Input
Amino acid sequence: YLDDPEFIDRHLLEEIFNEPGLKGIIIRGSGRHFSAGADLTRLKQLAGDESALFNKISAGKELVKLIRNARIPVIAGISGICFGGGLEIALACHIRICSETALFAFPETNYGIMPGLGGTVMLTKLIGSGRSAGIILSGDMINARKALELKMVDYVLPPEELHDHTAAYLDRLTSDRDTEVIHAVMQSVYNAE
Output
């Protein structure tokens, strides 16, 4: 479960990703929302301490890299708010499935900062530079249907179906596949980027 991207233990996640026999992971929020991202007020305060800010951003980038490079499929099960660093984590996932009530945004620019975990690059690869620049610079919220239209997400479901469908989808992709085949496919997908 993803409560706040700054509190995810990257080392624990790395151990989980490398667990023998693990075929896939679903990342989702622990409550009604996927993640509101980091506390932007706190980030602005950290801007005065370059070392602390650098360490925080570096840790976040390592987390995103870990997810993107996973040898197993990582699915984001997105409900509610998916903002800022939380959106960057969702974009790092290989597949994004959201509820009809999901909202997406990069509000950082409204606070005079920009997405710092690679979200600008990941979003641009998904939807193109013009649309990406507009979304990031405006800081505007995007609903689930618009996110699907833009190809920010892969599937949109009724809220009550999100968790069961996401688990069933991962099971369909991986249950009768050998772990080595899954690893090879994921490596090939990563190499194609």
